[in-house]
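Field log, afternoon session.

UNIT: design team B
ACTIVITY: writing a sequence onto a fixed backbone
BACKBONE:
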C-alpha cells in the first residue's frame, strides 16, 4: 500500500470516528412460564444530521428500549422512527448530544468490483473508538437469504464485518458512505455484505416523509446479469436483471413475466441492477405513478409489457 493511500485512510478515519456510535438495545425474552427477562443487544449506527442515525433493521427489531453510546463513552436515549425490513434499514433519533458531525453519503450506483472500502463499527460490543477494517468490493448485486427474508442487490466485501458491526457504514476512499453493513455468513471468512446506500436513502426519505415505508411490489426475485452468467445460460443479452422467480398473484405474474426472463429496461431507462430497478419503482411510486413499462427478453425475443402496481 502506498503512503498516499495510507494517509488518505487515516484522514478518513479521523473524519468519521465521531459520526459513528454504538447502539444498545433491550428486548424482553419470554420463557415458557411467561417470565420476561430483559436481554441486551449491540449494533452500530451513524449520524446523517444532528439527530438522525441510520442503522440496520435487524439491530433494533423487537427492541423495547434504545440508547446510543458515542466514542467518548457518553450514553443517550434514542427512539425508533421507522424501519424497512426489505432493505434491512432503520432510522432512529436522539437528542442532547450537542455538536455532531454527520457523514457524507455517496452514490452506490458508481461502485466497481475491486474498489477499496472501509468498514467502521463496534464489533463484539467493544466501546470507545470504533473499529476500522480495510478491504475491497468483492462483488455487486448479491442476493442472500437471512432469518428475516431475502436481501437483494447487496455489496459483497472482504472487509471484516463481525457481530456488532451491523448498521455501521461502509465507506469509499473519498470518505463517503456507500453502504450499510448488514450481514456475515457464519463459518465463512472474508465474506460480508452491505446494503447499497442508494436503497437506504430511499428508506430514510420515506420514513421522514410518511413515518413509514411505502414500497411498490413488482413481485419478482432477481439477480444482476453479467457476462459469465449470460454465457452459462446462453442468453442473448449480458446486462439486465435475470428473473429467478415470480410471486404468484403479483403484478409481475399478472403481466405475464416468467422465471428466466431478463428485464433490460423500465420506462425506457436501461437497467443493469436490481438496485436500479427498486430505486426507479420507489421514486416513481412516491410521485404517484402506478403504471410501469418493462422491456424483457425471453429467448431470442424482446417484449414490452405494462405492469400496474
Amino acid at each position: 500500500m502506498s503512503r498516499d493511500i495510507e494517509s488518505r485512510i487515516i484522514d478518513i478515519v479521523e473524519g468519521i470516528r465521531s459520526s459513528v456510535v454504538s447502539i444498545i438495545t433491550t428486548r424482553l425474552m419470554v420463557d415458557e412460564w411467561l417470565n420476561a427477562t430483559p436481554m441486551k443487544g449491540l449494533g452500530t449506527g451513524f449520524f446523517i444530521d444532528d439527530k438522525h442515525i441510520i442503522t440496520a433493521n435487524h439491530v433494533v427489531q423487537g427492541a423495547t428500549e434504545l440508547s446510543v453510546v458515542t466514542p467518548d463513552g457518553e450514553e443517550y436515549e434514542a427512539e425508533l422512527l421507522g424501519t424497512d425490513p426489505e432493505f434491512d434499514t432503520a432510522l432512529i433519533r436522539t437528542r442532547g448530544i450537542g455538536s455532531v458531525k454527520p457523514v457524507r453519503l455517496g452514490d452506490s450506483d458508481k461502485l466497481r468490483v475491486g474498489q477499496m472500502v472501509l468498514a467502521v463499527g463496534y464489533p463484539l460490543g467493544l466501546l470507545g473508538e470504533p473499529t476500522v477494517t480495510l478491504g475491497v468490493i468483492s462483488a455487486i448485486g448479491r442476493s442472500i437469504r437471512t432469518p428475516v427474508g431475502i436481501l437483494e442487490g447487496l455489496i459483497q466485501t472482504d472487509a471484516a464485518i463481525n457481530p456488532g458491526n451491523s448498521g455501521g457504514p461502509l465507506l469509499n476512499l473519498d470518505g463517503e458512505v456507500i453502504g450499510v453493513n448488514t450481514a456475515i455468513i457464519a463459518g465463512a471468512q472474508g465474506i460480508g455484505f452491505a446494503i447499497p446506500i442508494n436503497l437506504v436513502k430511499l428508506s430514510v426519505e420515506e420514513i421522514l416523509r410518511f413515518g413509514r415505508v411505502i414500497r411498490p411490489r413488482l413481485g419478482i426475485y432477481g439477480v444482476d446479469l453479467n457476462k459469465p452468467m449470460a454465457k452459462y445460460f446462453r442468453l442473448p443479452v449480458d446486462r439486465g436483471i435475470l428473473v429467478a422467480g415470480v410471486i404468484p398473484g403479483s403484478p409481475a405474474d399478472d403481466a405475464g413475466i416468467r422465471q428466466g426472463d431478463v428485464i433490460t429496461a423500465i420506462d425506457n431507462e436501461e437497467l443493469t441492477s436490481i438496485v436500479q430497478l427498486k430505486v426507479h419503482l420507489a421514486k416513481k411510486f412516491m410521485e404517484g405513478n402506478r403504471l410501469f413499462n418493462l422491456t424483457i427478453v425471453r429467448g431470442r425475443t424482446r417484449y414490452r409489457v405494462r405492469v400496474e402496481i
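LOG NOTE: The first helix runs from residue 3 to 16.
NEXT ACTIVITY: expression trials, pending approval
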